[in-house]
Automatic annotation (TrEMBL):
This is Cytidylate kinase. Belongs to the cytidylate kinase family. Type 1 subfamily. Residues 7-202 form the Cytidylate kinase domain. Its EC number is 2.7.4.25. The gene is cmk. It is an enzyme of class 2 (transferase). The keyword Transferase applies. GO terms for molecular function: kinase activity. The lineage of its organism: Bacteria, Pseudomonadati, Pseudomonadota, Alphaproteobacteria, Caulobacterales. Its main location: cytoplasm.
């Protein structure tokens, strides 16, 4: 049986990994899952039901009740509040365990898949044939996210956005449950000085090299 060709794209917030992963999926005709949306949805569900993001049991309950069908049409999931909530709940082992099967089932599809997140290459799909770790400087990533949010009318300042990025990086890398780290066999792609076309081209070449092995 031919093994599904899985592309794992990991990296910190606003590194460009989501755009790169979605374009790789379109290029290779593979289904795509932005796993960060799962955690954003869990975090928002806790908030909208009046729960406390500091309550691990409430977050786990929200994860187990998650309807993944809403991920593609809920604009609130792209908000700054959703990103902060996701970073909070993603540190709970119970939340990660509740979402593990869903993500691994997606990665195991017969034709292959593309997934992006923080722990795809290390936990979700450790046997993925192509692994990328996409990053950029905190200042670059903060500017990208700041331009995105202010373009939608969010009044956040660049300084606040940079502080948020740095706080989330520290939280994601320091959590005990599946911390954000580069897999030993992942290829590092630094997009600091790249536009999206250059970043996608570099990512595609990394995947092509993996496919040729």
């Amino acid at each position: 049986m031919t093994q599904p060709f899985v592309i794992a794209v990991d990296g910190p917030a606003a590194s460009g990994k989501g755009t790169i992963a979605s374009r790789l999926a379109a290029h290779y005709g593979l289904p795509f899952l932005d796993t960060g949306l799962l955690y954003r949805a869990v975090g928002l569900d806790v908030l909208t039901t009046g729960g406390d993001l500091g309550d691990a049991r409430a977050a786990e309950a929200a994860a187990r009740a998650l309807d993944s069908g809403r991920l593609s049409n809920d604009a609130a999931l792209t908000s700054g509040d959703a990103g902060e909530a996701a970073s909070r709940v993603a540190g709970y082992p119970g939340v990660r365990a509740a979402l593990l099967d869903l993500q691994q089932a997606f990665a195991a599809q017969a034709g292959g898949a593309v997934l992006d997140g923080r722990d795809i290459g290390t936990v979700i799909a450790p046997n993925a044939q192509a692994k990328l770790f996409v990053t950029a400087t905190p200042e670059t990533r903060a500017r990208r996210r700041w331009l995105q949010l202010t373009g939608r009318g969010d009044p956040i300042t660049y300084e606040a956005m940079l502080a948020d990025i740095q706080r989330r990086d520290e939280r994601d890398a320091g959590r005990g449950a599946a911390p954000m780290v580069q897999a030993d066999d992942a290829v590092l792609l630094d997009t600091t000085d790249m536009d999206i076309e250059a970043a996608f081209d570099a990512a595609r070449r990394i995947v092509e090299a993996a496919r040729a092995r």
